[in-house]
Model the fold of this input.
Amino acid sequence: MKNIAIVMTLAMIAAVPTIAHHGWAGYAEEEFELSGTLDTQVALAGPHGTMKIKVDNQIWDITLSPPPRVQGAGLTSKSIPLGAKVTVRGHRHLDPKRFEVKTERVIYNGKTYNVYPDRK
Done:
């Protein structure tokens, strides 16, 4: 019985990163571009960096790459001031009721933060 509990615990621990990871399957194949104002700073906690932008009174969730890659691209919580105009390029969520973009590039003030440099 003790061995079963250990195996179950290890299985649950191993599954957490898989569940938490944002893959590309839930996003459209075609490229998507969106411009708006930064509503919530870049956050580098969790499996992916995040930020929010406001477009026509709608808040969009912007999912970035894992935090080390976001930082490697030079993007931090201090890179873009709140209220600044930004453009994101990536892939929109397949559910049209979800205002979310899995983002490959963030553009601010002429600088491109390429958070997924291996994706074209």
